């Protein structure tokens, strides 16, 4: 069984989110992607808010990775 994993680097702010929403599903379909990892720690410029996390999942991500900027927006803690 072939599993294709797509790793998307930093999605930054609203333009990055809109680009992901516009293109991710078609890329997944075109390339036969089985699993998609998206780095979302900068989706709210510095940090990640629940709304951006929901947008990333709705765009087609299976998992969102985060690092140090995650804690710049404490609202994400309850979402996690």
In short:
The chain is of the alpha/beta class. 41% of the residues lie in helices and 15% in strands.
Descriptive report:
The chain is of the alpha/beta class and 80 residues long. Helix content is 41%, strand content 15%. The protein has three helices and three strands, in the order E-H-E-H-E-H. It has helices spanning 13-31, 50-59, 76-79; strands at residues 5-8, 35-39, 63-65. It has a three-stranded parallel β-sheet, with helices on one face. Strand 2 (35-39), helix 2 (50-59) and strand 3 (63-65) form a beta-alpha-beta unit. Helix 1 (13-31) packs parallel to helix 2. The chain is globular and about 40 Å long. The mean pLDDT is 93.
Defining traits:
single chain, 80 residues, alpha/beta, 3-stranded parallel β-sheet
Task: Summarize the SSE layout with pairings.
Blueprint: E1 5-8, H1 13-31, E2 35-39, H2 50-59, E3 63-65, H3 76-79
In sequence order, what are the helices and strands, one letter per element?
A: EHEHEH
Question: Helix segment count?
Answer: 3
For the record, give the distance between the C-alpha atoms at the N and C termini, rounded to a whole number: 32 Å
Shape: globular
How much helicity do the residues have? 40-55%
* Mean pLDDT across all amino acids: 93
Q: Give a quick account of the main beta sheet: strands, pairing sense, barrel closure.
A: 3 strands, parallel
Residues in β-strands, percent: 15-25%
Low-confidence stretches are none
Q: What's the oligomerization state?
A: single chain
Strand segment count: 3
Report strand order across the widest sheet: 1-2-3
